[in-house]
Records
---
Amino acid sequence: MKIFLDSADLDEIAALCDTGFIDGVTTNPSLIAKSGHNILDRIAEICAIVDGPVSAEVTATDYDTMLAEGRKLAAIGPNVAVKVPLTKAGLQACQTLSHAGTKVNVTLCFTAGQALLAAKAGAAFISPFVGRLDDIGRDGMGLIEEICTLYANYDYPTEVLVASVRSSQTVVDAALMGADVVTLPPKILTALYHHPLTDSGLDAFSQDWAKTGQSIL
Ligand code: E4P
């Protein structure tokens, strides 16, 4: 399963890319706003340090402007995936951009029916928002299971990109369901490798080792 970083913070992205397990980055208008940087500059900066797909989202809601924005964002670099919302205009823009060879990430997906349409529109990625569904008392991971089954039934190449992730357990559940990608805020990535028993175990080993007076080097 691929791991993307859900961030527009360049320092954060650079630090975590060093780990070698970041396969791409996703951004959205809220994350760009939080960064305080110009969207075109920031996406170019991210593309310069990340080899995998970097999702950059259009902000228009009508087809023509979405298309123009999508083409401008795609021109930033070969690894830009243009993000469009799951609306009628967004699906039409997805179809046009995908036919022209641009990778499209269809975002704000909340039902399997929406995901079906995104696959038919040629999306490279579908982004179901698990956390936001859970926030309103719905079953976010149930949606992931449905979409994975539906895509497998028809061999759709669209990758299931699990978004709006609030816990490290969601990452494990997504992997067990066979989702293609998860996009994570940095704190969830940290939570994925951190365990208190690892820390206390390491402390005990270090203390016992110090008593031996040995050195491996
Ligand atoms: C990523 O593509 C999404 O924009 C992001 O995961 C949304 O997360 P949120 O629901 O925590 O804002």
---
Amino acid sequence: MKKFSLSVASLIVGATFALSGYGASAQAQEKEVKLKAGIGSSLTGSSHGLGIAKFKELIEKETNGRIKMQLFPDGQMGNDQSMMDSLKMGTLDMMVTSSAPIANTTKTFLVFDLPFLFTSEKIADTVLDGPAGQEILGTLKGTGLIGLVFWENGFRNITNSKRPINTPEDLKGLKIRTMQNPIHLDSFKTWGANPVPMPFNEVFTALEQKVIDGQENPNTLIYDAGFYEAQKYLTITQHFYTPFVLMIGQKSFDKLSPADQKLVQKIALETRDYERKVNRENNAKYLDLMKKKGIAINEVSPQDLEKFKASAKDIYAKFANDIGKERLDKVLAEVAKVK
Ligand code: TK8
């Protein structure tokens, strides 16, 4: 093997460090940073758990351990709403939340809760990563929260312990847990259910104790949170598509050097496609596993799905002012372009 002279090798190493922008000298000038991050689910079974673990792996590798992350899964740091409050206070640095609770901070985010807004992953990715989605992410500015990137929680399906669901009629009288979000509440009311808003980390116990009859979530979380163990029926409706948002608190972000701020933003983007890919694989894998574990799975027919869509169509107009008419129209226009 051709022997490199020492000078050539040292040139290559120097160039690599310079190119990486984080050469030993640059790193040495930056201070040690410790970031604490919380999520509501498990680290290994949920997609956003795997996503935040990937973020940790990449940022610690790129800074040779100068930036270290401590991860708090399974709601150890509270539920989505309380963790957002902690980010605003600076007592927690980062978190991953579903977009639905963010609407309590900035109403524009309600747009992502509109029933059947996104009907494919391609539409979701294009709109979220396009101008309309990015502008909505930017509306967090000034709230004490910074939305770094959209990940995927995914298309939501309904589980319950009473009966298979085929039409809105079948939801009549069922106590269905929803996220704490006005559009989720209204939609399930319109479909005839009794919606029960509740933080994610209280759902399993409520199902077990039959305080509620059912809940709705993407397959990954139905499996990872063990909800299927307390439910007899899983109905594929895909009635909502929920993005996850990887966030950092403004107070924590302001403590970072400009170079580290750029690095956090760069790595957030690098984890996006990974988390979505993992989520799509898990959604299919976990559905199969749940089938094998005996939960009765049915898919609502396209004709019956039209009944869900028809009865919820007024919700768009009802929440247009909260979302912002212009912004809503921009999102709908971008959806239409992809269809
Ligand atoms: C996890 C929640 C969850 C959401 C819910 O923290 O509350 O049902 O789907 O992913 O954000």
---
Amino acid sequence: MHEGRFNLQRKMITGYVLIMLVGALFAGLLFFLRFQIQTDDNIEAQMRLTARLFGAELDKYGIEDAAGIVDTVEKISGMRATVIAFDGSVAADSQDSLQNHRDRPEVSGAFKFGEAIATRKSDTTAHYYKYFAGALQIDGEDYVIRIAKELHPLNQVGTRLFFLGLLIAVAISLVFAWISVVKNISNIRRLQQIRSEFVSNVTHELKTPLTSIKGFVDTLKQGAIGDEAVAEHFLDIIDIEADRLTALINDIMELSEIETMRGDKGISDYIIDDIIGDVVSIITPGAEKNGIKLTVRKSPAVSIVRINRDRLKQLLINLLDNSIKYSNPGGSVILDCELSGNNVIFTVSDDGIGIAAEHLARIFERFYRVDKGRSRKRGGTGLGLSIVKHIVELYRGDISVKSVEGQGTTFVATLPIAVQM
Ligand code: ADP
């Protein structure tokens, strides 16, 4: 449980760090772009400076040399240069336009206010341009000199739009961060709920045998101890309930130990025959007592496994013990062990009572039992399959179950633990 929450916090932190990294990367990219493209201010400053030099040259050489000067300005600055007379006629243009320019806003603006700037799509090239126009007098006549710069696509949308985009991007990432926070909080709540359900289940499970023990002790004290046969029967029940308590506590401890692990400890190479041999000797008395035939079929290909030996024993015992518990006398339980790549496939099948389809999806849940009475009568804790599932997950394996009610059940556990010889 604690590990679960710890994992979640780690996931949350990793999530935030990732979001921040992506945000920083995005901001860095935009920053880089801002230097790659020029800002409106930069463009205007560059245009104004060019226009000044342009004007100074015209002033120096006179309007007769305008054609040569506009060509030089374009060559040096890469920007189109135009000289426009007061009536709008073009006195010189580096791109040889002859249209009247009087109605161009930057031209009329410059004649009115001395300087004007405009941005628009050019009729000639269909590209976006920024125009800077400045008025000046040459030989006593009024002229406007104009510089035109083709804009980068990002400048076309304008710096304001560009920042609006940035703002929207930041807003979207904040929304994503918020959604992830809300999702994580609901995950924490869900974990807390699972935890409190587990605690109440455990309490209930512990209380049942304890109540029974206390009841029989009280009855004994009230006089039943005098009747030797009855007393012995009661003591047997107390003994069974005490065993149940021990089994339950052992299972809870086992489960909580596996749950808090990321990978198993105590992993070593073992001869699989030794492990199966141990399991068989533990399981056989119970099988015999219940009149069940136990068969092991091990492929010779499986030889050495790398695992925590006790963990594998626990897994096999839980599956085999269930098959015996939920079979009828005269039944048969088979353990198959095969190799597939580096996977060892353990198949435990029985011809017992089976599990109805609607229960199949839930039997790996803690304390889930199809038939509570039968499970308890057979000493079940309701945790066996939950432990099996956790062991399988610990080794990144897989477990599946198939069952037909009244015909039998087959569990297949696949563990990537084979050591290639
Ligand atoms: P329990 O201690 O009750 O056996 P488990 O977690 O081991 O708990 O199993 C959960 C439930 O799944 C059992 O109560 C039983 O109803 C069902 N079950 C498990 N194995 C088998 C099987 N081989 N045949 C029929 N039912 C099974």
---
Amino acid sequence: MNGITDKVVAITGASSGIGEATARLLAERGAMVALGARRTGRLDDIVATIVATGGRAIACEVDVTSPSAVANFVDQTVRSFGRLDVFIGNAGVSSLSPMAELDVDGWSSMIDVNLHGVLNGIAAALPVFQTQGRGHFVTTVSTSGIKIVPTQAVYAATKNAVRTLLEGLRQESTDGVMRTTSISPGYVQTELVDSIADPRIREQAKTSMAALGIPAEAVARAIAFAIEQPDDVEIGDLTIRPTRQG
Ligand code: NDP
């Protein structure tokens, strides 16, 4: 199956930012989309607008740190749309702070959501892909893992762990059943940095994001590009930055 029309795509972190933009774009281009996140009110609103314009979409409450919740998300997607063509492990959090602040709770939450959450996605989607004989696992990593800067050490570490994971998965998936794609965005205008605890770091991050950030739709288009390739073409790594980002 080529292109995007009629593909079934499950997206975590679809209640805002990149996940929301990706769900909207793929639905507009004819995909059946399952939107997963914790804020179900927002998911319901997004789904309602997609459906109102003729798209096909469902909302599912999912906390990606729970393996059973992610398995249930995949089950619900397959029950609603008959199969799963693409899983986009996109949910993420960024608790930025200098290492010396010892924000151990923030470190844990980034590992739980950004790394464990993606592993839970693989555990849920891989068996379905194997049964179907086809599938595509996409994940949102970051340029934070390419150029490591102060306050982003742990965030970058989780993103590079996922980059490594996906390359390992790719090496184990050369039988043609599954494609893997890691998208590395630079600054994108989303809510990602709004929850940073330290007000000084939060304001710095918000200022950089506002000054430089590209719209989430730009990343959605990059994800769509990876998905729309023919089954025998795999876009492995894709970096997408604001042109002026250092
Ligand atoms: P947003 O904050 O807008 O989106 C993050 C999404 O993740 C939300 O939908 C949120 O939904 C979801 N999420 C967070 N924790 C959980 C959880 N435990 N279970 C399920 N969903 C969860 O930010 P972005 O759109 O920017 O982030 C999307 C991805 O892109 C992240 O992985 C981020 O690291 C990555 N990225 C972002 C960049 C940027 O500059 N914005 C740059 C590079 C990468 P809810 O709270 O409803 O659960």
